[in-house]
Every structure is written in C-alpha cells, then in structure tokens.
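Before any further analysis, backbone shapes were mapped to integers, which produced the following:

***
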Amino acid sequence: MNLLIKNAVVTDKSSALNGTLTDIKIENGIIKQIGKEIKPEPGFEVLELENLHISQGWFDSSVSFGEPGFEDRETIANGLNTAALSGFTAVALQPTGSPIADTQADIHFLKAKAAGHATSLYPIGALTKGSEGKDIAELFDMQNAGAVAFGDYNKPIADANILKIALQYVQDFNGVVIAYALDEKIKGKGVVHEGPVSTKLGLKGIPALAEELQIARNLFLLEYTGGKMHLPTVSTGKSVQLIREAKAKGLNVTCSVAVHHLVLTDEALTGFDTRYKVTPPLRPEAERQALIEGVMDGTIDIITSDHNPIDIENKKLEFDLAKDGTIGLESAFGALLTLLPLETVIEKLTAGKVLFGIEGSTIAEGSKASFTLFNPDTEYTFTKADILSKSKNSAFLGQKLKGKAYGIYNNGKLILKK
C-alpha cells in the first residue's frame, strides 16, 4: 500500500532525523520522500495520529506461541497480529511447540505459517533433539531453512561437552548458540528466588547461584571454543558482572533481560498469584537495580518480553504446580517507559536484529519502510482489555504503564489498533 505519514517525530539515535517532526511518503514499501508538509497524492492513504512518534521496527528476541500442538494457548496468526499491534515488526520464535522445532522441515513449517503477515517471524531451532539435552539437532540444515539461532527454551544444557561441541560446530556457518543459564541440581525443587520473601511465604527457594554458576561455566566454554553465544533473560547482578568481564576479554557474548525482571521484584509474590511465577524467578530490588545498570551501561544488549502464553488449566493451580511464564508483548513498551528513557527503550528493542543477523531498517529515503508507530506519553492502567493474546497470564495486569504502540508498517502492510 502507498502511505503518507504526517507529523511524526522520528526516534532513532542512528538517524540524522532523530528528534525531528516530519512527513514520510511510502510507495510500494519503500520510503520515497521525507520532509515537511508533503502534499497528499491520489492513491495514497494519509495517516495522522495524536503525538505520533516513529522508530525503526522493534524486534523481540524471545517469544513463544502455542502452534504447533498448543493452539489453545496461542496460534501463529494471532500471535503475529498481537506482536504487530504491540509494535513489533519482527519476533524470534522459541521452539516450544509439539513437535519441538528441531529439523529443517519444522523450520519450513513455521516460516510457511507466518508468510504474508506484517510482522516477520524468525524461528529459533532447538539446540538438541527434542530439547532433551542429549544429542545435537540438525543445526546447519535448520539455519539453511531460516533459523536465526539455536537453543532449548528455558532448558539448560547440563552436559558441558554438548555445549562445547555445539559452539565449535556452528562456527562453520556463523551460527548463534543460545545458552539458558540454570544449574538444575542447585535449583532442586525451588520455585521462587531464595531469600526473605521465599522464607516468609514458605516456598522453596532457588539460589541466585543456580544461574550465576551456569553462566560462569558457559563463559569458560565460550572462551575455550570461540564462536557466538547469547545468554537469554539474565536476572542477577552477579550474572551481569560476569558478562561484563567476559565482554572486556573480547568474548563474542550477548545477553538479554526480560521486561518483568526490570520492572517487578519478588515482593509481587506475597499473594501467591501464579501470574508472577516465571523463570528465572523474580528477584529482590537490589538485583533489579543491577539489571537496570546493566541496560544503561550497555552490558545487557537486548530487552525481551519473553512472551510465553500459558493456558488457564496450567496457570490457575497451586503455586508449586503452576507452569512458569507470562505474556508480555502487549505490555512491554508501556512497562519499560515507566523506568527507562525513551531512546534507551527503542535502542534495546531494536538492537537484537543485528545480533541475530536480521536485516535492519533505517529511516532514510530509498530504504525499505519498516516502522513502529507509537505515543510515548499515554499513561494508563493495564487491564484485560489491553490483552490481545489468547492466553491472559500477564504479570502486568493492574500495573500503571506509560506509552502505547499504535501499530506497525512492515512488509508493505499497515497494522493499527482500531
């Protein structure tokens, strides 16, 4: 479609237009003109919205949908529509379906299901067959089919030799290994962060050491093998420090943090509400502040929603029995703006494209049009009416948020909230 966007404030530190109010003319998916008071032409839809801001399209490095196998939790079609209306032009899909995406055929299936949508889907292939941690999956074939990285979602690789071989193997084709950090022996039967809150609630605790020890091991392996490693959803200050030191050594390591770990603490657990049961668990305030510091100093590369729809039958249970996970696409932007500067939020929601080898977008004449459209100043309370996902397990219900996405323009399509 041909589109004329009127009076948009550009928010993009990499662009010379950053901070300017301008019009943008898009023809056949390409930015044809940027300037003041561009006149509408026949055949062009004109878009003008209140306090409209525009940035290059946002990317979420970790989302889960249900399909295939758990369509009652979420379908690919509705998941991508939710992502679009939440401001994301691209998402990396975790291998959480049934069957697990561990073959070339599985990646082809996911890409085919996502074809034609405004939000682009980039599958993450399982690192091991069935995500069972025993045998390395068809990594090279999956990358040829379109996988952008390899990891077993929220499952650590207990066998250090498997992770070592994977790191060595993917170097032949510039692959990225995602290494979730958790020592399951130290975790034991823990369900929340080990500390005063877990003691007060009588819930079994997970020591921060369970994450930190595994990160230290994974970084030692990376130093030995070389290659590229991504550490997802880090959640403690010591984890951030270990990664900071590894980067200073020159190791090719990146990491992400989940929105809920930046905004919430384990104090939210006092009502035993399973919406707050996530992995890694919510941490105390000191850890949250260390994560924010890691974002601001650049140690943490990416912020992710870690969107994980869980059906009510697996969430409305006793705390010990409920599945981990919260949805987060719809609330990500509004939650982040309550504590971080706008330009930092945009930077951390777009940096992942480069790290995962995905084509970026710039706001310049002649470039492909791939935008997120948003109002950064809207303040509101997040309610069920704001949830677009089929599952409703949001840790942000009732939270006061700031900023809303209007939608996106990507792949020649304009998707806006009605």
The chain has 14 helices and 18 strands. The radius of gyration is 21 Å. The mean pLDDT is 96.
